[in-house]
Amino acid sequence: MMPARFALIETPPMKRRTLIQNLLTGSAALALPAFAQSERRIVLGQSAAFTGPAAQLGIQMNRGARVYFDAVNASGGVNGHTIELRSLDDGYEPDRCKANTEKFIKDNVFALFGYVGTPTCLAALPLVLESRIPFFGPFTGAESLRDPFAKNIFHIRASYYDETALIVKQLTSLSMKKIAVFYQNDAYGKAGLDGVTRALKPLNLTPAALGTVERNSVDVAKAVRDITAAQPEAIVQIGAYKACAAFIREARKAGYGGQFYNVSFVGTQALADELGKEGHGIVISQVMPFPFSTTTPISREYLDAVAKAGGDAKPNYSSMEGYVAAKVFVEGLKRAGRNPSREQLISSLESVQNNNLGGFHVNFGSRDHVASHFVEVSMLTEDGKVRR
Fold first, then answer.
1. pLDDT tens for residues 130-188?
2. Domain count, the chain
3. CATH of the domain at 223
4. Angle (CA) 48 133 73, round 5°
5. Could you give the strand order of the β-sheet that contains 135-136, starting from the edge strand earlier in sequence?
6. Which pTM value belongs to this model?
7. What's the domain range around 191?
């Protein structure tokens, strides 16, 4: 039976912020729910897209995490516990993610791990705050999940503000000032647009043109017309891989010859696969170490683990993010002791400070649950690969 579907009520940003603050204040004095352990097993819940136009984001995030968790379990687990990652498909739709989250909380999973997407995570957020369940390593850089601060939410990746700041810095250093934005018409796209606008403001610049696409759609014709009419020098894209690929193809057919930049959530390998030779020269900001060579210890470890896992596991940035998130989660779990509670996990994760994973540094604190601000850029090549 499919999970019940719930209507998502869009909440204005200021009201949403007030709601979140009220939830934080109202539940601050409550003890974290007890976690009954009938077996020596830590159960995590993950809601992500495993079908639909954004499926590769969830699939690869999940595979990378499983590569690490499976290796840990094979070597005896963590303090005698094995880790089980239960995954439910939300199709990148907020109402389905909310239903999945309600199920996980009802089933009393130990923590939520590796959710994928801003609108989906925001749909789950009130439940996460009310239940106080640990919410770890979501695949999103949205500021609305970071501010206001929540004690039970932990981020591994840099924010979209960090990514778009680097993109704007690189473009303007090349004397490009006419910068347009193509964005998904939801919380994710608007978070990226806010980042670009924020980075342009000190330079007395604003986006040269805007174009939108609906989530899980590739209807980009109007956006192509709206943006190419302004003849921008570069276009920053804030969307998932299928829509961004469709926009690139249609814009080029329309005669656009400028530069395309994407943020990491696009799904780098998925975008390369969609575009093939047409992807040559597309720039993508990255928040994870380069996963295709052994230039850093963490990359060597990851590539070795993927090779040992076999099957359909292949190296890419989204899988690397799942792997790194799993590695940091396990470090927190190790520090939580032999009979960990959710509260002990949170305290233990906060003790993961100035931790070098092998070229990728993570740093939490009692009031800082964003582990990394690392951002660099990569480029797609004509043969469908990625270079730094």
1. 999 999 999 999 999 999 999 999 999 999 999 999 999 999 999 999 999 999 999 99
2. 2
3. 3.40.50.2300
4. 65
5. 82-89, 41-48, 111-113, 135-136, 153-154
6. 0.90
7. 160-286
